[in-house]
Amino acid sequence: MTRFFASLQIALKALRTNKMRSALTMLGIVIGVGAVVAMVAVGSGAKQRIEEQIASMGSNLLMVDSGSSSSGGFRMGAGTTATLTVGDAKAIETEIPGVKYVAPSIRGAAQVVYGNQNWSTGIIGTSPEMIEIRGWALSSGRSFTEQELDGSAKVCVLGRTVADNLFGGMEPVGQIVRIKKIPFTVVGVLSPKGQTTWGQDQDDLIFVPLTTGQKQLFGQAFPGMVRNISVQARGPDEMKEVETQLNELLRQRHRIQPNQDDDFTVRNLTEMMSSREESANVMSVLLGAIASISLIVGGIGIMNIMLVSVTERTREIGIRIAVGAKGRDILLQFLIESLVLSLLGGILGISLGVAGTLVLTSLTKWPVLFSIKAILLAFVFSGSVGVFFGFYPARKASLLNPIEALRYE
Amino acid sequence: MNHSETTPGPLIQVQDLAKIYQFGEVEVHALRGVSLSIQRGEFVAIMGPSGSGKSTFMNILGFLDQPTHGQYFLEGMSGERLSRDELAEIRNRKIGFVFQGFNLLARTSALENVQLPMIYARTSTHQRRESAQKALSEVGLAGREHHHPTQLSGGEQQRVAIARALVNQPSIILADEPTGNLDSKTSVEIMTIFQRLNQDLGITVIMITHEPDIALYAKRDIHFRDGRVVEDRENLSPLIAKEGVAQV
User: Fold this and answer.
1) Which site in A3, A144, A282, B168 is 20 to 30 Å from A354, CA atoms measured?
2) A14 lies within 8 A of chain B by CB
3) pLDDT tens digits for chain A (409 residues)?
4) Residue A319 touches partner B, C-beta closer than 8 Å
5) What fold, for B38-63+81-247?
6) Given B84, B116, B117, which is nearest A327 (Cβ)?
7) Is A59 exposed, middle or buried (0-12, 13-18, 19+ CB in 10 A)?
8) Among A residues 23-52, those touching chain B with beta carbons less than 8 Å apart
9) With contacts defined as CB-CB under 8 Å, which chain B residues touch A1?
10) What is the pTM of this model?
11) Contacts of A12 (CB under 8 A, 6+ apart)
């Protein structure tokens, strides 16, 4: 221990003696570690955002959209013709074993009025299962029931944005709002989910029972039909099977010949999101790798300076060896010097990285996530860089021949 | 303060010492069989032209180099088959070095320079300061502890170096041309210190010099030529440096 402290004192003194050089050498590590910390923060921020979206969208989800219509060769977008029915939804629920929940839905836009407030929003007519499937939670009140669905009750569940805009701070549950001038009783309010990656507000909507939506709100556009069926599989393993069976079942029910195109589209949202997550992962690994390269370049800078320092201080090393320094003493002295450089650089680099990331995120609004693990790892890595690149010069110093070293000019 | 330990026999015993340097195919015989012994309390001047082998001899005495043939015993102990680190330890405890070029650490105070051998002897910080302080006053530098080498004259720097050589209470002080970089007045001052250390503290001093008038202060002269001892005689009436200082 005395050996360590003695070497530490000598090393610190040597670094103080060459302040400018020490600072510049450290800069390489500072930038390297700073880059690693910032890049990992940005990478994991993006990844976390995507994970949240997957969670908010609901897991193991298949979306069935009704097919596109065409007139005179001009094909309209998906969902322009209602080809799916409530019967399709029922069939999916009863005939495909891997299915957990099925929720048919229709949608439209309407103006909602409460008192002297009004708000235009999306209205989704669906079954109560939808709220389960999409992983919504209720912040107050309840969802609508099967009875209300069967009886086309005029009840609705508000998204947070709608509730805020119509009611301000007031409790909406139990109040009456008018959708297309028809009075609906608010039975529940959803917990907020925030925005999607593409900036869409997921809380700007109203759920009403499917039957109510069909009869009272959008009846004329799609009589008896639904525009979309959300299907949740029991688990991730059943996804593929359910998707295949879903295709077969719907082709059969819609009497589509083998040579004809589907009149519906099945989208595996989880898969889509997973691939986004995958690319976010690749991105953060790539960013981390690039940043690590700069850390290694910083390490080479340390090695370079340490080699110069050993050569420059040959005579000093000679004196030390002559008066009784052992190989270990000299090795330790130079190793500690490079370790102090790299660890100090690491600490400054972490501060720089955190500060830089905070500036970046305040300018660009990118999501960032600092992980203690990544920061510690960068710190340990910078220390290892110091030991690794400091070892060769230190060893070289410790093996100097004292007679030649003392003669060195 | 008595530096010498009481082991029987001579302090230094050298037998048939030879050193051959190999430069490619050329063999250089730096030492060709040197045998001599030095007792405790001697003050020896080693003289000889350059290339006579005196520096090689000193390096071997100082455990900085190993002989090719022959044996060297310091206090009955041989450096043969010892590792680099074990040799370093012997140097640290038994030998004080004084060089022609002073060889002090730059940008380091006199006090810290003197402490250097004690750092490697693992002496406590407190003890280090105390001993260094004492060694500096021994060479007449009390009050200049915090000066850096550049703030000291050549003579003062050499005195710091002597204090450093002194501080671990070695058996011998090996001085390689200690006055080579100094004017004659300062040289006599350095000789005063060596004579006092030798006389009052009983430290054995072995000094290389090529200046005959400096050799006159020693109690024994050994002349080297072509790797051999050609003359080894006692100086029955060495000059007293203290008186010389008064004259100069």
Assistant:
1) A282
2) no
3) 667 887 888 888 888 888 898 999 899 899 989 988 888 888 888 888 877 777 767 778 888 888 755 555 555 555 556 678 888 888 888 888 888 889 998 888 888 999 888 899 999 999 888 888 887 888 888 888 888 888 888 999 999 999 999 998 888 999 999 998 899 999 999 988 877 666 678 889 999 998 888 888 876 555 667 888 889 888 878 888 888 898 888 888 888 888 777 788 888 877 777 777 788 888 888 888 888 888 888 889 889 999 999 999 999 999 999 999 999 999 999 999 999 999 999 999 999 999 999 998 898 888 888 888 888 888 898 899 899 999 999 999 999 999 999 988 7
4) yes
5) Rossmann fold (3.40.50)
6) B84
7) middle
8) none
9) none
10) 0.72
11) A340
Which one of B61, B83, B103, B104 makes the best mutation probe of the A interface by having the most chain A beta carbons within 10 Å? B103
Q: List, in sequence order, the alpha helices (H) in chain B.
A: 54-61, 84-94, 110-120, 125-138, 154-166, 184-200, 212-215, 241-247
Name the strand (E) or helix (H) holding A349.
helix A327-364
A329 in contact with B, Cβ within 8 Å: yes
**Structure token digits, residue A352:** 């720089």
Residues 6+ apart with CB under 8 A from A275: none
Q: Closest Cα to residue B225, out of B76, B50, B98?
A: B50
Contacts of B59 in chain A (CB under 8 A): 403
Q: What is the DSSP string of A259-321?
A: TSPPSEEEEEHHHHHHHHHHHHHHHHHHHHHHHHHHHHHHHHHHHHHHHHHHHHTHHHHHHHH
The single residue listed with the structure tokens 């001038």 is A181
**CA separation (Å) from A317 to A331, A345, A403, B63?**
10, 26, 11, 16
Alpha-carbon gap: A306 to the closest alpha carbon of chain B (Å): 18
* Residue ranges covered by each domain of chain B: 38-63+81-247
CB contacts, 8 Å: A2 with chain B = 122
Q: CB–CB of B91 and A322 under 8 A?
A: yes
Residue A235 near residue A62 (C-beta atoms within 8 A): no
Residue A90 contacts B where some CB pair is shorter than 8 Å: no
Instruction: Check CB contact under 8 Å for A3 and B122.
Output: yes
Q: Cβ contacts (< 8 Å) between B87 and chain A: which residues?
A: none
Q: How far is it, in rounded angstroms, from Cα A258 to Cα A253?
A: 13
DSSP letter (8 states) at residue B192:
H
Separation in Å, CA of A376 to nearest CA in chain B: 34
* Residue A43 DSSP label: H
Amino acid at B171: S
Residues in chain B within 8 Å Cβ distance of A8? none
**Secondary structure (DSSP) of A62-117:** EEEEE---EETTEEPPTTSS--EEHHHHHHHHHH-TTEEEEEEEEEEEEEEEETTE
Q: How far is B200 from chain A (nearest CA, A)?
A: 24
